[in-house]
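ENTRY TYPE: paired fold submission
RECORD: A
CONTENT: sequence, then structure tokens
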Amino acid sequence: MATIAGKLAWERIIQAIKTGDKPKASDFKILAESQQGWHPTATSTGPLKYVDKNGVIRVTLKQGSNRTPGSDRPHVELRNAKGSRIDLQGKPVTRKSLDNNTPISYSLGHLIMQHLNYWEFNGFENVYLEDSIELAKSKQRSRLSPNT
């Protein structure tokens, strides 16, 4: 069940598509985080993904890469509870389908896409990605000066 914030994010996503704009990655992030049992995950070089309580990757937010034709720009990839690729309407799509790569405006900022290695913070191995950003900011400030 989505929260109110998640429902509002979904409305912004649909509105952007209806008006010909690209939906924002931050709205997909809010939507994913509003789903019960979903959690963010990322490798040091990979995209931000949201995995459900059954271990199925449901949302993948990508900045784009020249490695794969058609996915060189920021886009989101969605999957249903069975792990099958879907478009925004929930219809099945193939890996190479254009609807598999819904264009987005990448609005998450630079820090998140650095995929901070939160496991490097001893005792904080199980914190979420956004928590690791705050830890990294604190760690960085402590290196600058003891009073910062």
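RECORD: B
CONTENT: sequence, then structure tokens
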Amino acid sequence: MDSKQEKLINSYTTHFNKNFNLAPLQAKIMAYILIMGKKSGVTFEDVLTYTQASKSSVSTTLNSLMDRNSITYHHKPHDRKKYFTPNKLSSLLERTIRIIQSELLLLVDMIDYYEGIEENETDTKQINNIRIYKNHLEGIEVSVRETLQKLE
């Protein structure tokens, strides 16, 4: 591994840890697979060597990343090893859409709730702010869907 790859892995490790709430080992393995596994994948042994973590920790972490739909694996002909690769960008976008849709449903309920207890100008302003935020999320959802279509 060259220094450029190592720097990129470290940057993505920090990114995944802070922005996706991945545990440190999850973030490190996800970043490693993203950078090193893009072409043909990385093996369990590759991950074990890179992280210097226990077999149990690496196995548990790989399974958790697969459960999150962040990584996948394949087998090569005549080889029983699993080769781990990052999942397609489309899966990240699909997850983003699911999160946005969930948030939009909650916002509808929140608007209904606040409209039921609206008593003054401050409440009216709060409802309007929630509507502005809801419209913003709807625009993001449209944009993400358009990007997803372009990736297909």
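NOTES ON RECORD B: Strands lie at 71-74, 83-86. The chain has six helices and two strands.
STATUS: closed
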